[in-house]
């Protein structure tokens, strides 16, 4: 097995462990508002297939060989720190959101706005981490489908979901979320702060 494929398998195992742990913890939380629809459910499944099923088919079977290409060893050396940072951000964003976390767009009975930890400078650090995981996957897997499908499907999910998520947060938290939006960036830290008159 190529070292880059082995690294990817370790990364995806840690990823699943983090997600599984927090899914178990959040399963008992009562939800008061659910904002998911069939299109979003399909996209969430597509992201999961692109992150897990396609890479496993690529690594362990010859079925996707038609879409293989060569990658220089330098991409593995770049992919490794990208993946390590992505996993750190993925874990920290679950930990900082705590009870406010859910896979789908939902609100708890007593939902709290989180603006500390990795949420201090960025509003969507978990989505930043998923973009980084997608970039890392394309650096480690030398296949047009298994390497790039996760980044493409997550970019689509992000584009469709984000306006609904921010509208939902604005509805619930009003001015508190508006001022949080002014001092933070979406997926990268905001460099300059908006000064209100
Ligand atoms: N978009 C965030 C969180 C993704 S999890 C991120 O990328 O880090 C999705 C859930 O998180 C949503 O259902 C919403 O209820 C909750 N959420 C998003 N931002 C939040 C915040 N700042 N504080 C509390 N809950 C938040």
Describe what this molecule looks like in 3D:
The protein is mainly alpha-helical and 197 residues long. It is built from six helices and two strands, in the order αβααβααα. The protein has helices at 3-26, 38-60, 73-97, 125-140, 144-173, 175-183, and strands at residues 31-34, 106-108. A two-stranded antiparallel ribbon has the order 1-2. α3 packs antiparallel against α4 (125-140) and α5 (144-173) packs across α6. The radius of gyration is 18 Å and the shape is globular. S-adenosyl-L-homocysteine binds next to α3, β2, α4 and α5.
Task: Describe the structure using short key phrases.
Four Helix Bundle (Hemerythrin (Met), subunit A), 197 residues, two-stranded antiparallel sheet
Element layout with pairings:
Elements: H1 3-26, E1 31-34, H2 38-60, H3 73-97, E2 106-108, H4 125-140, H5 144-173, H6 175-183
Antiparallel strand pairs: 1-2
Helix pairs in contact: 1-3, 2-5, 3-4, 4-5, 5-6
Bound molecules: S-adenosyl-L-homocysteine.
């Amino acid at each position: 097995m190529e070292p880059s494929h082995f690294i990817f398998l370790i990364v995806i195992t840690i990823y699943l462990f983090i997600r599984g742990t927090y899914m178990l913890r959040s399963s008992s939380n009562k939800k008061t508002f659910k904002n998911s629809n069939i299109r979003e459910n399909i996209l969430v499944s597509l992201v999961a297939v692109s992150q897990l099923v396609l890479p496993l088919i690529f690594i362990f079977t010859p079925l996707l060989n038609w879409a293989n290409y060569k990658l220089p060893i330098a991409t593995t050396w770049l992919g490794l720190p990208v993946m390590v940072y992505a996993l750190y951000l993925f874990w920290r964003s679950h930990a900082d959101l705590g009870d406010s976390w859910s896979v789908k767009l939902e609100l708890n009975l007593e939902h709290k706005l989180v603006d500390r930890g990795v949420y201090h400078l960025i509003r969507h650090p978990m989505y930043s981490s998923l973009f980084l995981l997608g970039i890392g996957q394309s650096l480690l897997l030398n296949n047009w489908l298994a390497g790039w499908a996760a980044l493409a499907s997550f970019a689509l999910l992000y584009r469709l979901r984000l306006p609904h998520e921010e509208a939902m947060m604005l509805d619930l938290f009003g001015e508190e979320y508006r001022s949080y939006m002014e001092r933070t960036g979406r997926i990268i830290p905001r460099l300059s702060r908006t000064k209100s008159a």
